[in-house]
Amino acid sequence: MTLFEKIIAREIPADIVFEDDLCLAFRDISPQAPVHILLVPKKLIARIGGAQADDQNLLGHLLLTAAEIARRENIASSGYRLVINNGPHGGESVPHLHLHILGGRHMDWPPG
Questions:
Q1: Is the CA virtual torsion 85, 53, 72, 17 positive or negative?
Q2: Residues 92-106: pLDDT tens digits?
Q3: Is 56 exposed, middle or buried (0-12, 13-18, 19+ CB in 10 A)?
Q4: Could you give phi then psi for residue 57, rounded to 5 degrees?
Q5: Whole-structure pTM over 0.90, yes or no?
Q6: Which among 27, 30, 38, 49 is placed 20 to 30 Å from 12, CA to CA?
Q7: Which residues are paired to 27 by β-bridges?
């Protein structure tokens, strides 16, 4: 069971900011911006590179939900960044697809 599955199951506490039947969002415990929220699907998909065609609706839901969370966190008008890490060189640390919603400060480019 992944760390995120344990958070979804409420086995590990988290500062949850959004939940519906498909996903859960919570504040990152090591934030890289004033607003840093992780949005995870309740369905286990190890990484975006492992998503299948039948995950299309869920993936779209995650993007629309990220935009809604950005509005709720008051970062939508100033701008925010969505990050999905895939694999070790991409910075993936938990093998459960998740979106980082980052905002509240200027984001530099390139990111790293």
A1: negative
A2: 999 999 999 999 999
A3: exposed
A4: -65, -40
A5: yes
A6: 49
A7: 37
| Domains recognised in the chain with CATH numbers | 3-103 (3.30.428.10)
What the block records as the tokens of 99 is 């979106």
* The pair of three-digit structure tokens given for residue 101, joined into one six-digit string: 């919603």
List, by residue number, the catalytic residues: 98
Could you read off the pLDDT of 70-88 as tens digits, one per residue? Answer: 999 999 999 999 999 998 8
Tally of CB atoms within 10 A around 46: 15
